[in-house]
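Fold sample X.
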Amino acid sequence: MIRSDEAVASFSAGFTCSAAVFSAFSRELGLDVETARKIACGFGAGVSRSGNICGAVSGAILVIGLKYGKANAGDDHATEKTRALVREFLRQFTERHGSVNCTELLGWNLADPGEYEHARDEGLFKTRCPVFVRDAAEILDRIL
């Protein structure tokens, strides 16, 4: 299964968007899927329904950090590579969707319980969010 399909399947099975994206890449980076899902869980729905950065985007940033992030003091090259790849990811995602902010992407502020219900009732978590999850994984596959 290709990673974008795996990410969407994971999201459809009930994992957060962030966990779905991060766990689709975790095995090849030396992290088991269960641990990856736990690490990324709180980033879903615009960082725990706060309306901030899209969880699929957060999951992708975690993937980039796990693959290229700085692990040793003085390895500034790793920091710069990570930042450059994160900026490129953000550019490409924004080019496709106009934003990386969950509230802007969905048109509802998930931090507000009433707006969350509207987004759910409109089916956005089943129609729009899988697209963001798939696109995040596809962009990662291209830039990593």
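Fold sample Y, listed below.
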Amino acid sequence: MIEEEYKYKRELGEGKWDKILKRKLVELSVADNYDEAKHEWIATGECWWSGLSEMPEWVTTHPRKCLCSHNIVYHFEILNTENGIRECVGSDHINSYLILRAIAEDTGLDIDSISEDMIEKWINVRVESMKKTAWWHTNGDAFTTMFDHVKDLDMRVNVRKVGKYYNHEYKQYFDNTKIRKSSKGTYGAPTYKMASIVWRWNSPENPKRQILTRGYPTEKLMNDLTLFYAMFEMHQTLTENEDKKLAERLLEVQKEKDDLISRRQRYMEIERNKMIASNIEENQNDSEFEDKCNYYGIRMFSELDGINDWERKFLSSIKDWIMSGKEPTEAQRQSLVKILNRDNGDVQMATEKQCSYLRNLGYEGDFASLSKHDASAAISTLLEERRKGYE
């Protein structure tokens, strides 16, 4: 069972560099043979990338070299637990015995129960961390500069249209947009629709944002950022033109509001002037009518002095007759005096027939002081109200 398990775990072979490493490990160990010496060594978990400026002490004896003398990029520290010697090897020579002890001590598992997948994961975690450090060391300044420069414009340009909405401030319809989460088309082509750079890198609304899942951007994101950065001025010009049109639209809307207010003010001014002119004309007419009434020896009157439609029409026609400069005929004068004299001298009280009729119509006034003239007016009013109620 143990033999089968160890078949898929790493072991140094008989190649050139493997043989050199075996020899040097034995030379640095307490044991005098590799099969025993290999169990003295353990991977510490410390890693260093050759592109970093600060070199740890355990690398200084073999800068950019594995213990086997082979050129390497990623350096892994190993420790001899018997004599305390520290050395470094490349990712190709972190063999299973070095890692098995590290995993066993970290997890408390028996060495024989540690799988190849666990060894791979141990290496990948450290290599990935090293890659992240290396990437930021090489590209970090350029990425940060470009990203900070384009991030606001990215949220404006790299969007998709999803219907329209009406904006009351601008009084027009606009495209409703949402962040584009996936790219479409051929990279660099005029029709290429780029996914939002901010969305992919560090948007709080994206649970898979690369700043958390990887710690450094993918090659695709970096390529898109470089392309967008190169086209920044073109995108900025387009958005500035859009903003200019929006500003002009706001001015148009404000002008429309101002024009409407101005028209309303002019209309109100015209109506006020008409009312003033009408009042002046009415006062002038009243004064002229009063002079003419005095000339003909009758008191000033209006159609309101009539108690029925015939009298009101008669009084209105006589007023027009007099104002046109014509003298009332004798018959007109007698009818006019008869109507107007009701208000002078003895007041004729309402007849019993009028009072009875008013009761049937629902009149609730004081019958004792009701004149014949007022009774007639009340009957006309109540009949008109009843007629309107039937309509």
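Sample Y note: The first strand starts at residue 41 and ends at 49.
Also: The radius of gyration is 53 Å.
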